Amino acid sequence: MYLSRVEIDTNNRAKTKDLTHLGAYHNWVEQSFPAEIKAGKRDRHLWRIDQLGGKRYLLILSEEQPVAEKLATYGVAGTVMTKSYDGLLDTLCEGQVVRFRLTANPTHTITKPGARQGRVMPHITIERQRQWLVDRAEKSGFQLVQQTAVETPNDEATWAFDIVGREWPVLHRKAGRGVRLSRVTFEGLLRISDVAVFKQTLTQGIGREKAFGMGLMTVIPEA
After folding, report:
1. Cβ atoms of residues 47 and 216 within 8 Å
2. pTM of the entire structure?
3. What would the DSSP string read from start to end of the chain?
4. What whole-number distance in Å separates Cα of residue 203 and Cα of residue 200?
5. 144 near 133, Cβ under 8 Å?
6. Per-residue model confidence as pLDDT tens digits over 39-55
7. Do 98 and 220 form a contact (C-beta atoms < 8 A)?
Protein backbone atom coordinates (compact mmCIF):
# COMPACT_ATOMS: atom_id res chain seq x y z
CA MET A 1 0.00 0.00 0.00
CA TYR A 2 1.07 3.58 -0.66
CA LEU A 3 0.11 6.86 0.99
CA SER A 4 0.43 9.90 -1.26
CA ARG A 5 -0.06 13.60 -0.65
CA VAL A 6 -0.03 16.80 -2.70
CA GLU A 7 -0.76 20.38 -1.70
CA ILE A 8 -3.75 21.72 -3.66
CA ASP A 9 -2.85 24.91 -5.50
CA THR A 10 -5.71 27.02 -4.14
CA ASN A 11 -3.98 30.25 -5.24
CA ASN A 12 -4.03 29.26 -8.91
CA ARG A 13 -7.62 29.77 -10.02
CA ALA A 14 -6.81 28.88 -13.63
CA LYS A 15 -5.55 25.50 -12.45
CA THR A 16 -8.25 24.61 -9.93
CA LYS A 17 -11.34 26.23 -11.49
CA ASP A 18 -12.79 22.77 -12.17
CA LEU A 19 -12.49 21.60 -8.55
CA THR A 20 -15.94 22.81 -7.53
CA HIS A 21 -17.43 19.47 -6.49
CA LEU A 22 -16.40 16.07 -5.13
CA GLY A 23 -16.89 14.41 -8.50
CA ALA A 24 -14.04 16.52 -9.90
CA TYR A 25 -11.74 15.45 -7.07
CA HIS A 26 -12.73 11.83 -7.65
CA ASN A 27 -11.79 12.21 -11.32
CA TRP A 28 -8.44 13.76 -10.34
CA VAL A 29 -7.70 10.75 -8.15
CA GLU A 30 -8.70 8.26 -10.85
CA GLN A 31 -6.67 10.04 -13.53
CA SER A 32 -3.59 9.70 -11.31
CA PHE A 33 -3.61 5.95 -12.10
CA PRO A 34 -3.53 5.88 -15.94
CA ALA A 35 -2.34 2.27 -16.12
CA GLU A 36 -5.54 1.15 -14.39
CA ILE A 37 -7.64 3.18 -16.81
CA LYS A 38 -5.80 1.70 -19.80
CA ALA A 39 -6.27 -1.83 -18.46
CA GLY A 40 -9.94 -1.23 -17.68
CA LYS A 41 -9.18 -2.01 -14.05
CA ARG A 42 -10.43 0.34 -11.35
CA ASP A 43 -9.13 -0.35 -7.87
CA ARG A 44 -10.66 1.50 -4.95
CA HIS A 45 -8.56 4.46 -3.87
CA LEU A 46 -9.34 5.94 -0.49
CA TRP A 47 -8.78 9.68 -0.37
CA ARG A 48 -9.65 12.80 1.56
CA ILE A 49 -8.98 16.51 1.65
CA ASP A 50 -7.03 17.77 4.66
CA GLN A 51 -6.74 21.38 5.77
CA LEU A 52 -3.60 21.95 7.83
CA GLY A 53 -1.79 25.18 8.63
CA GLY A 54 -3.89 27.18 6.20
CA LYS A 55 -3.11 24.81 3.31
CA ARG A 56 -5.27 22.16 1.64
CA TYR A 57 -3.93 18.73 0.73
CA LEU A 58 -5.20 15.77 -1.25
CA LEU A 59 -4.30 12.52 0.51
CA ILE A 60 -4.62 9.15 -1.27
CA LEU A 61 -4.22 5.56 -0.03
CA SER A 62 -3.75 3.07 -2.87
CA GLU A 63 -2.35 -0.36 -3.69
CA GLU A 64 -0.24 1.04 -6.54
CA GLN A 65 1.74 4.26 -6.69
CA PRO A 66 0.03 7.13 -8.50
CA VAL A 67 1.84 8.83 -11.39
CA ALA A 68 3.42 11.92 -9.85
CA GLU A 69 2.81 14.12 -12.91
CA LYS A 70 -0.91 13.27 -12.88
CA LEU A 71 -1.21 13.76 -9.14
CA ALA A 72 0.38 17.19 -9.56
CA THR A 73 -2.31 18.30 -12.05
CA TYR A 74 -4.03 20.62 -9.56
CA GLY A 75 -1.19 20.73 -7.06
CA VAL A 76 1.57 23.06 -6.05
CA ALA A 77 4.73 22.21 -7.97
CA GLY A 78 7.15 20.03 -6.04
CA THR A 79 4.71 18.97 -3.29
CA VAL A 80 3.85 15.44 -4.46
CA MET A 81 4.98 12.86 -1.91
CA THR A 82 4.45 9.09 -1.96
CA LYS A 83 5.64 6.61 0.66
CA SER A 84 5.06 2.97 1.48
CA TYR A 85 2.26 2.41 3.99
CA ASP A 86 3.16 -1.21 4.70
CA GLY A 87 5.88 -0.26 7.18
CA LEU A 88 3.37 1.52 9.41
CA LEU A 89 0.83 -1.30 9.10
CA ASP A 90 3.48 -3.82 10.18
CA THR A 91 4.23 -1.89 13.40
CA LEU A 92 0.63 -1.92 14.67
CA CYS A 93 -0.13 -4.21 17.60
CA GLU A 94 -2.98 -5.05 19.93
CA GLY A 95 -3.37 -2.63 22.83
CA GLN A 96 -1.39 0.10 21.08
CA VAL A 97 -2.71 3.66 21.47
CA VAL A 98 -2.55 5.81 18.34
CA ARG A 99 -3.70 9.27 17.36
CA PHE A 100 -6.16 9.14 14.47
CA ARG A 101 -7.72 11.41 11.89
CA LEU A 102 -10.82 10.32 10.00
CA THR A 103 -12.99 12.08 7.44
CA ALA A 104 -16.31 10.28 7.05
CA ASN A 105 -19.96 10.51 6.04
CA PRO A 106 -21.98 9.66 9.19
CA THR A 107 -25.41 8.36 8.17
CA HIS A 108 -28.29 6.23 9.37
CA THR A 109 -31.08 4.39 7.57
CA ILE A 110 -34.76 5.14 8.11
CA THR A 111 -37.10 2.33 7.11
CA LYS A 112 -40.84 2.97 6.84
CA PRO A 113 -43.32 0.15 7.45
CA GLY A 114 -43.97 -1.74 4.23
CA ALA A 115 -41.05 -0.13 2.40
CA ARG A 116 -38.69 -2.48 0.56
CA GLN A 117 -35.65 -0.32 1.19
CA GLY A 118 -34.73 2.20 3.81
CA ARG A 119 -33.73 5.79 3.15
CA VAL A 120 -30.16 6.77 3.99
CA MET A 121 -30.03 10.05 5.90
CA PRO A 122 -27.07 12.04 7.29
CA HIS A 123 -26.60 12.58 10.99
CA ILE A 124 -26.95 16.30 11.57
CA THR A 125 -26.01 17.02 15.17
CA ILE A 126 -22.52 16.79 16.66
CA GLU A 127 -23.83 14.41 19.32
CA ARG A 128 -25.22 11.98 16.72
CA GLN A 129 -22.10 12.24 14.58
CA ARG A 130 -19.87 11.43 17.55
CA GLN A 131 -22.11 8.50 18.51
CA TRP A 132 -21.90 7.20 14.93
CA LEU A 133 -18.14 6.71 15.38
CA VAL A 134 -18.54 5.23 18.86
CA ASP A 135 -21.00 2.67 17.49
CA ARG A 136 -18.54 1.53 14.80
CA ALA A 137 -15.40 1.27 16.91
CA GLU A 138 -15.49 -2.34 18.13
CA LYS A 139 -16.43 -3.89 14.79
CA SER A 140 -13.70 -1.81 13.17
CA GLY A 141 -11.00 -3.27 15.41
CA PHE A 142 -10.48 -0.45 17.90
CA GLN A 143 -11.70 1.13 21.13
CA LEU A 144 -12.05 4.86 21.52
CA VAL A 145 -10.02 6.09 24.49
CA GLN A 146 -11.76 7.69 27.44
CA GLN A 147 -10.20 10.28 29.72
CA THR A 148 -10.85 12.02 33.04
CA ALA A 149 -9.53 15.47 33.85
CA VAL A 150 -6.70 15.37 36.43
CA GLU A 151 -8.11 18.28 38.41
CA THR A 152 -11.54 16.63 38.66
CA PRO A 153 -10.86 12.87 38.92
CA ASN A 154 -14.37 12.10 40.16
CA ASP A 155 -16.00 13.52 37.07
CA GLU A 156 -17.42 11.25 34.42
CA ALA A 157 -14.92 10.11 31.78
CA THR A 158 -15.20 11.64 28.32
CA TRP A 159 -14.13 10.41 24.91
CA ALA A 160 -10.63 11.46 23.90
CA PHE A 161 -11.66 12.51 20.40
CA ASP A 162 -13.42 15.46 18.86
CA ILE A 163 -14.99 16.71 15.66
CA VAL A 164 -12.64 19.22 14.05
CA GLY A 165 -14.50 19.82 10.80
CA ARG A 166 -18.12 19.76 9.54
CA GLU A 167 -18.91 20.61 5.92
CA TRP A 168 -21.49 20.04 3.18
CA PRO A 169 -19.49 19.82 -0.08
CA VAL A 170 -21.27 19.44 -3.42
CA LEU A 171 -21.23 15.91 -4.85
CA HIS A 172 -21.92 16.85 -8.48
CA ARG A 173 -22.99 20.05 -10.18
CA LYS A 174 -25.84 19.95 -12.69
CA ALA A 175 -27.44 23.07 -14.14
CA GLY A 176 -26.01 25.19 -11.35
CA ARG A 177 -27.36 22.94 -8.61
CA GLY A 178 -25.82 20.02 -6.76
CA VAL A 179 -26.48 17.33 -4.19
CA ARG A 180 -24.46 17.86 -1.02
CA LEU A 181 -22.89 15.29 1.29
CA SER A 182 -22.20 15.58 4.99
CA ARG A 183 -18.43 15.52 5.55
CA VAL A 184 -17.20 15.23 9.15
CA THR A 185 -13.58 15.07 10.32
CA PHE A 186 -12.72 13.38 13.63
CA GLU A 187 -9.43 13.53 15.53
CA GLY A 188 -8.35 11.89 18.78
CA LEU A 189 -7.01 8.77 20.44
CA LEU A 190 -7.93 5.12 19.98
CA ARG A 191 -6.65 1.78 21.23
CA ILE A 192 -6.24 -1.12 18.79
CA SER A 193 -8.29 -4.12 19.93
CA ASP A 194 -8.02 -6.42 16.89
CA VAL A 195 -4.98 -5.83 14.68
CA ALA A 196 -6.22 -7.76 11.64
CA VAL A 197 -9.60 -6.03 11.61
CA PHE A 198 -8.04 -2.63 12.29
CA LYS A 199 -5.64 -3.00 9.36
CA GLN A 200 -8.65 -3.82 7.19
CA THR A 201 -10.36 -0.67 8.48
CA LEU A 202 -7.33 1.45 7.57
CA THR A 203 -7.04 0.01 4.06
CA GLN A 204 -10.75 -0.30 3.20
CA GLY A 205 -12.21 2.70 5.01
CA ILE A 206 -15.21 3.39 7.25
CA GLY A 207 -18.74 4.29 6.25
CA ARG A 208 -20.31 5.37 2.97
CA GLU A 209 -19.23 7.50 -0.01
CA LYS A 210 -15.64 6.25 -0.10
CA ALA A 211 -15.32 7.17 -3.78
CA PHE A 212 -15.96 10.78 -2.86
CA GLY A 213 -13.38 11.48 -0.19
CA MET A 214 -14.92 9.76 2.83
CA GLY A 215 -13.79 6.88 5.03
CA LEU A 216 -10.00 7.29 5.09
CA MET A 217 -8.54 6.97 8.59
CA THR A 218 -4.85 7.63 9.19
CA VAL A 219 -2.96 7.05 12.44
CA ILE A 220 0.20 8.19 14.20
CA PRO A 221 1.53 6.04 17.09
CA GLU A 222 1.67 7.86 20.41
CA ALA A 223 5.19 8.30 21.74
Report:
1. yes
2. 0.89
3. -EEEEEEB-TT-HHHHTT-SSHHHHHHHHHHT-HHHHHHT-----EEEEEEETTEEEEEEEESSPPPHHHHTTTB-TT--EEEESHHHHHH--TT-EEEEEEEE--EEEE--TT-SS-EEEE--SHHHHHHHHHHHTGGGTEEE-EE--TT-TTSPPEESEEEEEEE--EEEEETTEEEE--EEEEEEEEEES-HHHHHHHHHH-SSS-GGGT---EEEEE--
4. 5
5. yes
6. 887 778 999 999 988 99
7. yes
